Amino acid sequence: MHTLHIALHDGFTDDIVTIRVNGREVFRKSHVRTDLRLSRADGVDVQVDSTKALVEVAVDPGELLKSTEVDLSKTPNLAISREKDIGITFAPQSEAFRYM
Amino acid sequence: MNHQDPTSGELNGLVGDFAELSVDDIAALNALNREESEQIAAQEPTAAVSIPAVGPAPLIPIPIPLPLPKRAVSGRYRGSVGSFQLELRVDVDGVRPQNRVSGDFYSFSGGTLNYVGSFIVGTPAIAVTATQVTIRGLGSYTFSAGAPVVQVTIQRRSLLQPPAPAEVRFFTTAGAPGATYNCSFESRYFRTVRLETDRVSDVTTPVFANYNTGLLPSGGPARNLSVVSAYAEAGIEMIPTSGSDVINIAEAHAGASWSDAELHDSMTRHFSVFRNVPQWTVWQAVCQNHDLGPGLLGIMFDQLGPQRQGCAVFHRGLGGVTPQQLRVQLQTYVHELGHCFNLLHSWQKSFATPPAVDRPTSLSWMNYPWRYPLGGEPAFWSAFPFQFDTGELVHLRHAFRNNVIMGGNPFISGAGEVNPEIMADPISDQSGLQLEIFAASTGFALGEPVVVRFGLEGTDRRGSTVHPYLHPNMMLTNIVIAKPNGRVVAYDPYIDHLMAGTERNLAQGSVIQDSAYIGYGKGGLYFDQPGTYQIRAVYNALDGSRVLSNVLNVCVKYPVTAQDQEMADLLMGQEQGALFYLLGSDSESLRRGNAAFEKALDKHADHPLADYVRLVHGINAARTYKAVDDSNPKRCTVRPANLAQATKLLTNAAAAQSPVDDITKGQCLDRLVTAKRTAGDEQGASEVTKMAHNIGASRKAKVGAH
Lengths: 100, 706
What we know:
The complex is a heterodimer of chains A (about 100) and B (about 700).
Chain A: E1 2-8, E2 15-21, E3 24-32, E4 42-48, E5 52-60, E6 64-71, E7 77-83, E8 87-93
Parallel strand pairs in A: 1-7
Antiparallel strand pairs in A: 1-4, 2-3, 2-5, 5-6, 7-8
Chain B: E1 20-21, H1 23-42, E2 75-81, E3 84-91, E4 94-95, E5 100-109, E6 112-121, E7 125-128, E8 132-138, E9 140-141, E10 149-155, E11 166-171, E12 177-187, E13 191-200, E14 211-212, E15 224-225, H2 227-233, E16 236-240, E17 246-247, H3 260-270, E18 281-287, E19 298-299, E20 310-314, H4 315-318, H5 323-340, H6 376-383, H7 390-398, H8 401-404, H9 420-423, E21 433-439, E22 443-445, E23 451-458, E24 464-466, E25 477-482, E26 488-490, E27 504-506, E28 511-517, E29 520-521, E30 524-525, E31 531-540, E32 546-548, E33 552-557, H10 562-571, H11 574-582, H12 591-603, H13 610-622, E34 625-628, E35 636-639, H14 643-653, H15 662-678, H16 682-705
Parallel strand pairs in B: 13-16, 13-17, 13-18, 18-20, 22-33
Antiparallel strand pairs in B: 1-4, 2-3, 2-12, 3-5, 5-6, 6-9, 7-8, 8-10, 10-11, 11-12, 14-15, 19-20, 21-23, 23-28, 24-27, 25-26, 25-31, 29-30, 31-32, 31-33, 34-35
């Protein structure tokens, strides 16, 4: 098993966020809001069988929907943000998340 | 790589941004900039150049009198008049001068001292002579000031003499004198804060003391920095309290990690000067673990009641004594205290209330090294000079008191109060462009749409490559508005337009013009109170230049008659603002706004502001309006254009006596021409074209006169 660390970062303002990994819903919360002290809204660790994971994210309001494939052997940390005029963005990274 | 002496820790020997500048240095630098500009002009191939003959000259020793260096005049001053006390901050020389003056008023009442309000002079005129410095400018206030012009005069003294006091005189905008304060010099620091650092018993690594910035590559001179000296460089004095304490980890309850609530609770017990009121004191807890895990290096945890009084750092992710660990400790300790001063992350400044400009590439204590967009963490550290950026400096030194003091306004509120990067004049401008903004009238009625006209003129004889997007909707020209209460807000268009790249050559003397309604946007109504507003625009040129406009003063007048008041009530509202912005709409969601407009036309058809309603209704009538309608099998309802109604409304709105500005009149008539042509009414189109042409000719005549 591999662990995928998903963190919701910038741009969430009282949103409903649903995350599915390889078709399985792993996160569903309303009132998701970015904490501007840390630039972080929420997070979830997901156990995945393979090193590949298809991550699908839905955000309301805005009816935003976007997916990405993550290679856990290289980037087991996935930051998800909601950016003005762009929508959902993904930032996979090898290093663990840090906040201050 | 930094090659400076890694043992040097004194500010006196620092260079560049860190050097302490006298007012003479500032004046000399300004003169040098002017001289360089003139030299550049003289180096044009067509410029005549004469080369003086050079020969051996005898060396004659000339005794040079050594002038005593003058004291810097910047710092904090204090004085009283009657029951009022003024704390004055002068920032025109010394380290990283921001060319500002700010102050806080207090009043004595019995045995109490109460905060009254604050002001800041953002772009004062500074005059320096051999004997004195005079700083004068219009202040922005947290209250309605009767005499808002501030003049500060300080005698210049040598280093051997004690600092001179500052005479502060206030004037009305008409020049009549107001109060005069004689303020004694108090400190070279702009603000003084008491800092208490407490350690939790389970922290096994040393509490951070200092780091030599020369140990690893950096973007600034090598020096030993502690939390205290890092803030001292920003002009903020941090005085450690004597109440340092060791907190028993048992207070963190289960798991020996801290939640924000537990940290707050601990602060109320251990912070020796905690009073839960606005005061210049801050608490920093050095902890091992937070509930969010090792990735959390620090947090400003205090968001309960009066906020920003405490923060914590977590040594599980920070602890250690290697240079890398000490470096990140220094940044985190300073960063979290920065949040206590109401500073936001560099890339989140636009979330401040009011918003400022995001600065994701800022080399600041408030950025995340690992989020640095120009090369990530290694690039950040290599370039980081261990300092706050300019906008943050202005906030720390000059923000209105309640926006910065611990326990004052909540986190984020007031964090973007001053937007110096936009409002401040550039030190030099060689963009080859000049931006001018003006209003059709310097006085607007309350409720009247505020429309600003833009003119971008080429000033480079070789011409300049420019984009033509002056309208703020296109996001390439920004607007800032200083409201009568002193708050500075960035105008945020209701709808952003993403434009394809377009370039054109702007010859010297050629002008691109546009006009924009800036009364309503994402920030709601921007001119909703009578008073004097200051507006400034920034054109973001293709080469990265930020071309600043003049500062436009716009007065929104109090309603004089009952009819004026009722028209203001009918025209002001979120939906009416959206209708002005959209130039009309059939949308059901704007039904109440349209109803208010109808009422305005019915009851006050003869009022000058009714022409703005005619304009909006006329443009909307001239267009085909499509609406998504799920009850319709085609899912779309189409309301055809009503050209007869549009013609009647728009010709009235564009009539000579209409208060609508000429550019808007012309643009609206152009739309009517297009609508008529589309409908096959060539004769009607021709008549309207003639009308538009007359307006255009009138405008050219006015611009020429201008």
